[in-house]
Amino acid sequence: MRRLAVLSVSLLALAAPAAASALAQAPGDGTLVVKNGTAPRGVPVVTLIVTGAAIGRITNLGTIVIDDSTPNDSFSPEVTGYTSHQDTSYTATKWIGVNMKFRAVGGTYKITIYGSGVDLSAVGRGYVSLSGVPDATSGDGVYSLNGDPFRSLPATPLVKLTLGTSPTG
């Protein structure tokens, strides 16, 4: 009986890295990295619709809205460091705070982030809209999409850029 317990624990320990690698980039997946993103008040720095994974933070005052398109699966988004939160629909929640961190892994999510000091890393398939500050001298942050070189966030919002190959094929 003791051997069975040791064997079970050993197999479980091996299963964790295998599960983590399953969330790694699959063929057709793309990547998005945003560093120190900032947009004018009321304009989202990032709106990301992704099937995959996204993690990030907002170092200054900001808002994160996550709509979990697959609420009945075993994955749920997590947010820490918020000062308030509110359910805005059956599937969406809005968090407000300073130095918030979040992760949304393993499902399909629409993530909208407002504020400054936005850092985000995402892998999967979907679409993204990005926006920065019209006055480029203020340092509005940079982004890289699908492994391309980093560039400044756009003064005019870039809408519906494709993350990875098209979600429809």
What is this structure's SSE topology?
Blueprint: H1 2-22, E1 30-38, E2 46-58, E3 62-68, E4 78-87, E5 92-130, E6 142-145, E7 151-152, E8 158-163
Antiparallel strand pairs: 1-5, 1-6, 2-5, 3-5, 4-5, 5-8, 6-7
| Helix and strand element order | HEEEEEEEE
Terminal CA distance? 49 Å
Strands, total number: 8
Number of domains in the coordinates?
1
The profile of the biggest β sheet is: 8 strands, antiparallel
Radius of gyration: 18 Å
Percent helix, as a range, is 10-25%
Short description:
With 169 residues, the protein is mostly beta strands. It has 1 helix and 8 strands. The longest helix is centred in the first third of the chain and has 21 residues, at 2-22.
What features would you describe in this structure?
The protein has one domain. Helices cover 12% and strands 53% of the residues. The protein contains one helix and eight strands, in the order αββββββββ. A hairpin with a 5-residue loop joins strand 6 and strand 7 (151-152).
